[in-house]
């Protein structure tokens, strides 16, 4: 049975991905830095305790990542795939966006992905495994005041092809760029508030709807599948066609 690490796996896309992986026969190690979300997920995963491990891990900390790798190996004996999903967003006007804000976002979103790849890579290579990085359509287009988030996702895009060339052929590395994915109801209980989506929210997408976390989870399952071993160094945009749409006022 293969083992998958999902960072930021207790909320949003990460949580749905964790559930998908468990129901498709994988063992999952969730690395999450929100204590409340960790506790909620651990309670929810009790029925799958032989296949699930929930760890408190700050991916921007080298020590924490090393410890999480060790704990995952102690529990499951191997690491086959890494899903770098952990990310935060801080949006402020430039004159109020501090260096501390910048470093926090870059530290979790980009440095965290680097650290997780660095310390899992030898174990992934042993298993001819893979890495899936969560990029974003915001790596290629922006709304105002998304400086650090957009920059971090642009870095993820570049880190992906760099890792693919550096770690191949033993480790495949790809990334996914989600568009608008509604995760409003998939947060920890204290923050879960289902957003009331409007008809125009859906209709502006060429696909006819806003995305769901399941759309990304299914792409992750596709990319980690061993039968897709010819795919590496690629970015897959999953956005309902929005980045291909010309918009005229």
Write the layout of secondary structure elements.
Blueprint: E1 3-7, H1 12-23, E2 27-32, H2 35-44, E3 52-56, H3 62-76, E4 81-84, H4 99-126, E5 130-134, H5 147-167, E6 172-178, E7 181-182, H6 199-203, E8 211-212, H7 213-224, E9 235-238
Parallel strand pairs: 1-2, 1-4, 2-3, 4-5, 5-6, 6-9, 7-8
Question: How many runs of DSSP E, i.e. beta strands?
Answer: 9
Low-confidence stretches: none
| Spatial separation of the terminal alpha carbons | 52 Å
Provide the structure class: alpha/beta
CATH topology: Rossmann fold
CATH-assigned homologous superfamily: NAD(P)-binding Rossmann-like Domain
Structural account:
- This protein has 249 residues and is α/β, with parallel strands linked by helices.
- The chain has a single domain (3-244), classed as NAD(P)-binding Rossmann-like Domain (Rossmann fold).
- The protein has seven helices and nine strands; from the N terminus they run E-H-E-H-E-H-E-H-E-H-E-E-H-E-H-E.
- The protein has a seven-stranded parallel beta sheet, with helices on both faces. Strands 7-8 form a two-stranded parallel ribbon.
- Strand 5 (130-134), helix 5 (147-167) and strand 6 form a beta-alpha-beta unit.
- It starts with a strand and ends in an 11-residue tail after the last strand.
- The model has no long low-confidence stretch (mean pLDDT 93).
């Amino acid at each position: 049975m293969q083992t998958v690490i999902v960072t930021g796996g207790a909320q949003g896309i990460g949580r749905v991905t964790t559930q998908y992986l468990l129901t498709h026969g994988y063992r999952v190690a969730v690395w999450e830095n929100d204590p409340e979300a960790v506790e909620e997920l651990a309670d929810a995963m009790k029925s799958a305790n032989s296949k699930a491990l929930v760890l408190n891990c700050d991916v921007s900390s080298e020590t924490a990542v090393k410890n999480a790798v060790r704990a995952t190996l102690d529990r499951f004996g191997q690491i086959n795939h890494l899903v770098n999903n952990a990310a935060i967003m801080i949006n402020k006007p430039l004159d109020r966006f501090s260096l501390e804000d910048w470093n926090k976002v870059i530290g979790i979103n980009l440095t965290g992905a680097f650290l997780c790849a660095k310390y899992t890579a030898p174990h992934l290579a042993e298993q001819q495994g893979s890495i899936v990085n969560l990029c974003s359509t915001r790596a290629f287009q922006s709304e105002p005041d998304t400086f650090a988030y957009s920059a971090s996702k642009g870095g993820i895009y570049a880190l992906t092809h760099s890792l693919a060339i550096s770690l191949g052929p033993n480790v495949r590395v790809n990334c996914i760029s989600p568009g608008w994915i509604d995760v409003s109801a998939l947060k920890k209980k204290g923050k879960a508030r289902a957003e009331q989506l409007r008809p125009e929210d859906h209709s502006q997408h060429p696909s006819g709807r806003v995305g769901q976390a399941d759309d990304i989870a299914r792409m992750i399952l596709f990319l980690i599948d061993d039968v897709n071993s010819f795919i590496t160094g690629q970015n897959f945009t999953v956005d309902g066609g929005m980045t291909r749409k010309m918009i005229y006022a």
